[in-house]
Design a protein that fits this description.
Length: 337
């Protein structure tokens, strides 16, 4: 009994250190995002603007440009990190993520169709992307039934991803070249020109998702022990699986609707967070923190890594994901992924 208590205390201390360490890194990156730019500001000037002071140019730069972009990066990164942690925990596969399972692909198809064929932008484009993600989720839920549901879900996701890529390619070839520019930027994933209404909608989505996330944090570790064990402990694995997919789709589709299909954050964040926490935890909270940190840092690199050149954040996250996958393969040493 004493040994179990010591293990729990050690795990609690480790989780606390992870939260503190990632939190400090996030504060540093967030402050850098606020002070750097063509209109450099000091932390004192930013604090003055947030308290209602400052000059009019300072107020515009802080409140209309940098702050909504920073909050969108934090909220989107956290959403993708949690979505990836839920899917990887349910499928017990570190390669499971919304972008690899076709959820982001469904959103992308709907958004590109709305943008290139219907000519819509703004809230209508976001609604179309969200609807596409929901359609993709219905296909995944239909596939994740019966025996070997996890394997069926992965195979269905791969099929949806390939189908989505084919449809997008077809749509891009049927329009004028200049029309494809905005679609290409959206498909890459970008945080530029973030309006406040998008931040508010994503924040409200988080408010709706938190109660379900709290339930899944307790029931998902039991559900993945096996159907017989889970039922014996009072948990219905089928219901848990549906809730996991629906919540992952909600967080991914809303994020994708606003910033585009940001790749690999949902894959990398949980895989980084779990070893930090250890003890076999799903690491939902740490995955959210790491996802927010990764996307915010990637956006910072995208803006300032090359002087005078700003690129979409999705380019940086894609490069990060490629390096991570190579590292994962190099360190697996023959173990099953």
């Amino acid at each position: 009994m004493r040994g179990v208590l010591l293990v729990r205390q050690h795990a609690a201390r480790r989780r606390m250190l992870v939260w503190i360490g990632v939190g400090i890194a996030m504060v540093v990156v967030a402050m850098s995002a606020m002070v750097l730019g063509d209109y450099p500001l000091t932390p004192a000037q930013i604090g003055e603007v947030l308290l209602g002071g400052g000059t009019r140019p300072e107020q515009y730069v802080v409140l209309q440009v940098r702050l909504p972009r920073l909050l969108m990066a934090l909220l989107s990164g956290a959403a993708l990190g949690v979505a990836g942690a839920l899917l990887q925990g349910m499928l017990r596969n570190p390669l499971a993520s919304p972008d690899l399972l076709g959820i982001s692909g469904g959103s992308s198809v709907a958004a590109v169709y709305a943008l290139l064929v219907l000519g819509v932008t703004g809230p209508a484009l976001a609604a179309a992307a969200f609807g596409g993600g929901l359609v993709a989720s219905l296909l995944l839920l239909a596939a994740a039934r019966g025996q070997a549901a996890g394997l069926r879900l992965i195979l269905a996701g791969i099929g949806v991803s390939f189908l989505s890529a084919s449809i997008i390619g077809f749509l891009m070839t049927r329009v004028q070249l200049q029309q494809t520019q905005s679609a290409l930027v959206w498909l890459t994933g970008t945080l530029s020109s973030t309006p406040w209404w998008q931040v508010v909608v994503l924040g409200m989505t988080w408010v709706l998702a938190l109660p379900v996330l709290a339930i899944l944090a307790r029931k998902l570790p039991v559900a993945i022990l096996g159907a017989d064990t889970a039922v014996g402990l009072g948990v219905r694995p089928g219901v848990v699986r549906i809730l996991v997919v629906l919540l992952a789709v909600l967080l991914t589709a809303v994020t994708c609707a606003f910033v585009g299909p940001i790749s690999f954050i949902a894959l990398c964040a949980p895989a980084i967070a779990r070893p930090l926490v250890a003890h076999g935890s799903l690491a939902l909270g740490p995955s959210a923190l790491v996802g927010a940190l990764l996307l915010c840092a990637s956006d910072l690199v995208a803006q300032f890594a090359i002087p005078g050149v700003s690129v979409p954040a999705g380019i940086v996250t894609g490069a990060l994901g490629a390096v991570f996958l190579l590292w994962l393969l190099a360190t697996s040493k023959g173990r099953a992924l």
